[in-house]
Fold this sequence. Notes:
Number of strands: 12
Order of helices and strands: EHEHEHEHEHEEEEEEEHH
Strand order of the largest sheet: 7-8-9-12-11-10
Oligomer: single chain
Distance between the termini: 38 Å
Shape: elongated
Largest sheet: 6 strands, antiparallel, barrel
Radius of gyration: 23 Å
Amino acid sequence: xxxxxxxxxxxxxxxxxxxxxxxxxxxxxxxxxxxxxxxxxxxxxxxxxxxxxxxxxxxxxxxxxxxxxxxxxxxxxxxxxxxxxxxxxxxxxxxxxxxxxxxxxxxxxxxxxxxxxxxxxxxxxxxxxxxxxxxxxxxxxxxxxxxxxxxxxxxxxxxxxxxxxxxxxxxxxxxxxxxxxxxxxxxxxxxxxxxxxxxxxxxxxxxxxxxxxxxxxxxxxxxxxxxxxxxxxxxxxxxxxxxxxxxxxxxxxxxxxxxxxxxxxxxxxxxxxxxxxxxxxxxxxxxxxxxxxxxxxxxxxxx
Length: 303
C-alpha cells in the first residue's frame, strides 16, 4: 500500500474496466468523496495500451487500477503490468482489480504474483453483483489516500453564473456573482453594498454553468476581496440538514463530474489525436506517446 502522504488528490484510472464493471454512476458518486476517477477502456487491446501510455505520460503520479479479468489480445496482464511498472513505477501508483474467486488458492495465487511485482495500491475483489461493489471500491481508494486532505471537489463558475437572494422582509432581492461550488457549499461576490445580517437564507436561486436550482443555505464565512465582499455558504436541505435535496443533488453531482473531468478528458483525446498523426516506423510506442504529449503540452502552454 502506498504511503498516504504521496497520494494527494491524484487522478484514478480504472484500466480495462468498461461501464459494466465501473459504471458512470460510480465515477460520479466518487466525486462526492473528493475522488476524481476515469476509465481507460477500448474495444481493442492495442488502442487501450496506446491510451494507457499516453495517460501515464500526461498525468504522472496518477493511480492505475488494472482489471485483470478482461481478456487481452496477444499479451497477458502480468506481462503488461510488469512493463508498465518498469516504465512508470517511479511516478505512478498501481493496484489490481479482479472478480472474486470461489477458491482461496486462486485468490492467493493472483495476489502473490502481483505482490512480487511490488505494486503499491493493493487489490480490489469485485462481486458479480456489480451494484454492491461501490462501497468496497470507495473504502479501498480512501485507504490508499487518493484524495489526500481534499474533502470536496470544487468547480469554477462561468462568467454569467449568479446567485439571487430573496430578502422577503425588505421586499428586495440581492444579486451575487458565483465564484465556485461543490456538493457542500458555494462562494460568491455580493454585488450590493449591504448584505442583510442573516446567517440563513431560504430559496436562493443558483444559476451556474448551465445549472438552475433553488436551495436554502447558511453563511459560514465572509471577507473582503479585491473585487468585493466574498461570502461562502453551505447548502441546507429544507429540514436544516447540511447538503442538497436529493433531486438537486443528483443534477449538481453530474455537473460537477462533467466540469471537473472535462480538461483531463480533452487532454487525453488531444494527445490520442496527435499520436495517430505520427509515423510508427522504427520508433517505440513510448517514444511516440512522448512526442504526442510534448505537442499537447506545448499547445496548452500557448493558450
